[in-house]
């Protein structure tokens, strides 16, 4: 997807890293979907040290930033993240300015910028929510790697007209397309409206991430997590599709829907366990 775009250090090698290519591709795709206007949305992706070392110098010296929310659980881990104030639209044109590869220090108090975030840029303003969610999802699933936040249009719209009870919200989404229950049998968490960018919303989101892979921020967007970019993007795509159908129906009289009995039959046929408390 990228051209031979030599970066400021004259280093073409970095840009060939598959994880940079993946970030370029997905941010471009999400911007095309209209979910990530202006500087909306952010992504963080846990990487293996050997993979990072293959493409960039990991021994320093590096720029160090202090975290206002120490994350000891992530000590020594590597991530590629989108930059604060950066536009998804611009990532593919200039990955070194808009993305950064970083390592959490051994005490979990700081991050070291190993590549990118050119010109003193900082990691995403939602780093607290990302890092706290990574810590929780790693407990739930050792294969976990990605946290993705986006302003998915129909999900946001639905938070104006649907009750914010997460069990009811989940049930409605399951009813909107037959595949939904199979894709997210664990359902969707919902936090109250909160000020973004804070450690408070980070903690509230991460608390939900103990047993949800997707958490809605009312009138703002969604946080989704997963083991691969395909799985993570596929999850948000499916939730957004269901929300779109809900909005297209738009409160008109529904003549038929998928009944709870049918949803249970579906779960049995696809060997998934619907979250307890959602279906009657
Ligand atoms: O990065 O989406 O929530 C901008 C945002 C903040
Ligand atoms: Zn946002």
Automatic annotation (TrEMBL):
<comment type="function">
    <text>Catalyzes the reversible cleavage of L-rhamnulose-1-phosphate to dihydroxyacetone phosphate (DHAP) and L-lactaldehyde.</text>
</comment>
<keyword id="KW-0963">Cytoplasm</keyword>
<dbReference type="InterPro" id="IPR050197">
    <property type="entry name" value="Aldolase_class_II_sugar_metab"/>
</dbReference>
<dbReference type="Pfam" id="PF00596">
    <property type="entry name" value="Aldolase_II"/>
</dbReference>
<feature type="active site">
    <location>
        <position position="126"/>
    </location>
</feature>
<feature type="binding site">
    <location>
        <position position="151"/>
    </location>
    <ligand>
        <name>Zn(2+)</name>
    </ligand>
</feature>
<comment type="similarity">
    <text>Belongs to the aldolase class II family. RhaD subfamily.</text>
</comment>
<protein>
    <recommendedName>
        <fullName>Rhamnulose-1-phosphate aldolase</fullName>
        <ecNumber>4.1.2.19</ecNumber>
    </recommendedName>
</protein>
<keyword id="KW-0862">Zinc</keyword>
<dbReference type="InterPro" id="IPR036409">
    <property type="entry name" value="Aldolase_II/adducin_N_sf"/>
</dbReference>
<keyword id="KW-0684">Rhamnose metabolism</keyword>
<dbReference type="GO" id="GO:0008994">
    <property type="term" value="F:rhamnulose-1-phosphate aldolase activity"/>
</dbReference>
<comment type="pathway">
    <text>Carbohydrate degradation; L-rhamnose degradation; glycerone phosphate from L-rhamnose: step 3/3.</text>
</comment>
<feature type="binding site">
    <location>
        <position position="220"/>
    </location>
    <ligand>
        <name>Zn(2+)</name>
    </ligand>
</feature>
<feature type="domain" description="Class II aldolase/adducin N-terminal">
    <location>
        <begin position="21"/>
        <end position="247"/>
    </location>
</feature>
<dbReference type="InterPro" id="IPR013447">
    <property type="entry name" value="Rhamnulose-1-P_Aldolase"/>
</dbReference>
<keyword id="KW-0456">Lyase</keyword>
<feature type="binding site">
    <location>
        <position position="149"/>
    </location>
    <ligand>
        <name>Zn(2+)</name>
    </ligand>
</feature>
<keyword id="KW-0479">Metal-binding</keyword>
<dbReference type="InterPro" id="IPR001303">
    <property type="entry name" value="Aldolase_II/adducin_N"/>
</dbReference>
């Amino acid at each position: 997807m990228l051209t031979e775009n030599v970066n400021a250090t004259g280093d073409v090698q970095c840009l060939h890293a598959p994880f940079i290519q993946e970030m370029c591709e997905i941010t471009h795709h999400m911007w095309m979907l209209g979910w990530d206007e202006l500087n909306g949305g952010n992504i963080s992706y846990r990487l293996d040290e050997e993979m990072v070392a293959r493409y960039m110098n990991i021994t320093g010296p590096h720029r160090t930033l202090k975290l206002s929310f120490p994350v000891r659980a992530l000590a020594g881990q590597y991530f590629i993240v989108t930059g604060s104030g950066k536009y998804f639209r611009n990532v593919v044109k200039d990955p070194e300015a808009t993305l950064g590869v970083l390592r959490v220090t051994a005490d979990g108090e700081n991050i070291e910028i190993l590549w990118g975030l050119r010109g003193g840029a900082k990691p995403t303003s939602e780093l607290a929510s990302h890092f706290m969610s990574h810590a929780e999802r790693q407990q739930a699933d050792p294969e976990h790697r990605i946290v993705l936040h986006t302003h998915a249009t129909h999900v946001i719209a639905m938070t104006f007209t649907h009750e914010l009870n997460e069990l009811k919200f989940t049930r409605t989404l399951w009813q909107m397309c037959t595949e939904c229950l199979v894709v997210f049998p664990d359902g969707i968490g919902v936090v109250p409206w909160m000020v973004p960018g804070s450690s408070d919303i980070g903690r509230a989101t991460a608390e939900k991430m103990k047993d949800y892979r997707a958490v809605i921020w009312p009138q703002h967007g969604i946080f989704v997590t997963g083991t691969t970019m395909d799985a993570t993007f596929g999850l948000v795509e499916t939730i957004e599709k269901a929300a779109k159908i809900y909005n297209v129906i738009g409160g008109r009289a529904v003549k038929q829907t998928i009944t709870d009995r049918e949803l249970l039959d579906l779960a049995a046929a696809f060997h998934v366990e619907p979250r307890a408390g959602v279906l009657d």
